[in-house]
Design goal:
Oligomer: homodimer
Radius of gyration of chain A: 20 Å
CATH architecture of the largest domain in chain A: 3-Layer(aba) Sandwich
Order of helices and strands of chain A: EEEHHHHHEHEHEHEEEHEEHEEEEEEH
Strand order of the largest sheet of chain A: 6-5-4-7-10-16-17
CATH topology of the largest domain in chain A: Rossmann fold
CATH class of the largest domain in chain A: Alpha Beta
Number of strands of chain A: 17
Number of helices of chain A: 11
Helix content of chain A: 40-55%
Structural class of chain A: alpha/beta
CATH superfamily of the largest domain in chain A: Translation initiation factor eif-2b, domain 2
Chain lengths: ~350, ~350
């Protein structure tokens, strides 16, 4: 499997997902600015992958600090951390990864060399952990998948959105590995087509049958009884279970409810943000109108504006269950999410 | 305003909408086959425009029949009519236009020259009628629009989808002409982007502010209270008020209901098909997977399939009202649609 990101010596190598499925090229990042560029341009995307990229980027930032005095060093590192935290607003995993690296630096001994080594090790641990978490999530989620099932997903919550294996597609992979006959319907996911470009590519490589559909087709597809369950990832889950995820997810959840199809969210506990009480308080990134107005070598009439919200919020009443590495969480989410996070901290 | 289609001497000129908004070119059709090509490739699209194009195409077919015997002539003409009727399955206006031309030929005197002249006149009348119908629809619909309103629409139900003026966009135009301050949000409408390419173009030309949004954004846009009402066109309305329209319409209607936003359908009575009791009996066209799998010079991974249903069916319980040239029809639709069609026949 093509890695999403990895350390090559002292360089962070990031797969340029904007070029997929046509080309498999990596961007070599030697400083934090380059990692931020990758995050902001969506060369690397997906909440868990952004978290790991942020941790790696902070290692590069830490290494670039030229002062020796530990107090001043920590000040500089904190400043870098805040720049990284602001790279993208919606996925809470970015902030979560930054916090984790900051806490480690604070607790580390005084010697800068030691801190640097610890930060590097932590970034490697986060990558390895992320894959292990996704596999655990996959095992829990696979139990919800019938022996023969067509699973509809939106955007890409796969290996490419994570350190590896994937969240929503981790559930698909685990179900397939458990011998279930799964097919995938991948919403193409405009404007950047992560479903058509990335999810379809991952599934073809895995040998799992996949059909791409326009985002508007979800109602018609469910009318034809083609979908047994929906599984999507998440960028941030509020304390009440409202789920921020790629724009268009809300339509999937609403059609699933209308058609009596289960709608699951697969996300690590790091995506659950107990500090955000409800979805309306999640900051939603607005991106360049050009992503919407340009298409296939053409563009909308001069003078057209665009609405380019990168995410929407699926209200908790439409979420059948949330699949995490610690098990499947059910409503009422205020209780189940808080309990799962409390256990995680022990 | 650029015409959608017109007679130039004995040639049917059809605006090639596949090239919009980049280029304004016309396809000169000298025989019915060329008109069918335009209909099937979506050079001309939109239920009312397809109806008028079919009528014009049948004039070309009629003229090409070389037999003189009136009985044999009518047989040949009927055969051509059936070929035209099969060009696309979902929009009932195609079949409606074919029926109208067949009925005229049946009722006409014996002389072939006379029949030809009558068919030509009928096709001109249908074009003129369509524009008049749309203006009447606009007047009725404009009363439903607040003084200041943002109207969300899907696909293109504008001048380009009709003989002129438009159905859903006719309502927008009439509201603007009545001095109301209207803005439009145009769903881009994948896979063929009729919203981004055509609706935005029409609105820019009209001087009405327009913002294009990905089809997946409708939930997030309504969450932000940006939409006062939705108006869409229709390809076929069943006797019970179920509405077949461009894929993605069902999502708009379902989100509108969730957010308490009125959802209107604007369509001429010719789009109402009392012979089809409910939406599940409307034939839904499936188009080439390549329309979905190719994008922006790239394509989905080799081995991906696609689902490319051209239309979906919005259930009648989600339709606030149906705007026709005879007035605004309300639930229960079984009664109101039948009554409106009965009046129309008198």
């Amino acid at each position: 499997m093509v890695p999403t990101l990895y350390w090559e010596g002292d360089v962070v190598m990031i797969l340029d997902q904007r070029k997929l499925p046509g080309k498999t090229t990596f961007i070599a990042c030697k400083d934090m600015r380059r990692v931020i560029y990758c995050i902001q341009t969506l060369a690397v995307r997906g909440a868990p992958a952004i978290g790991v990229a942020a941790a790696m980027g902070l290692v590069l930032a830490a290494r670039a600090i030229r002062v020796k005095d530990p107090v001043k060093w920590r000040e500089r590192f904190s400043a870098s951390a805040e720049i990284m935290r602001a790279a993208r607003p919606t996925a809470v995993n970015l902030s979560w990864a930054v916090e984790r690296m900051l806490a480690l630096a604070d607790a580390a001994p005084q010697e800068v060399e030691t801190i640097l080594a610890m930060l590097r090790r932590e970034s490697e641990l986060m990558l390895a952990e992320d894959i292990a978490i996704n596999k655990a999530m996959g095992r829990h989620g696979a139990k919800l998948v019938p022996k023969k099932a067509t699973i509809l997903t939106h955007c890409n919550a796969g290996s490419l959105a994570t350190g590896g294996y994937g969240t929503a597609l981790g559930v698909v992979r685990a179900a397939a590995e458990a011998g279930k006959r799964v097919k995938v319907i991948a919403d193409e996911t405009r404007p950047l087509l992560q479903g058509a470009r990335l999810t379809a590519w991952e599934m073809v490589q895995e040998g799992i049958p996949v059909a791409v559909a326009p985002d508007g087709a979800v109602g018609a597809i469910m009318d034809k009884d083609l979908v047994d369950l929906c599984v999507v990832g998440a960028d941030r889950i509020a304390a009440n279970g409202d789920v921020a995820n790629k724009i268009g997810t809300f339509n999937v959840a609403l059609q699933a409810r209308r058609h009596g199809v289960p709608f699951y969210v697969a996300a690590p506990l790091s995506t659950i943000d107990l500090d955000t009480p409800s979805g309306d308080l999640i900051p939603i990134e607005e991106r360049d109108p050009g992503e919407v107005l340009s298409f296939a070598g053409s563009k909308a009439a001069e003078g057209s504006e665009a609405i380019n919200l990168a995410f929407d919020v699926t209200p908790n009443d439409l979420v059948t269950a949330i699949i995490t590495e610690k098990g499947v969480l059910k409503p009422p989410y205020n209780r189940s999410l808080a309990a799962a996070k409390a256990v995680d901290k022990i």
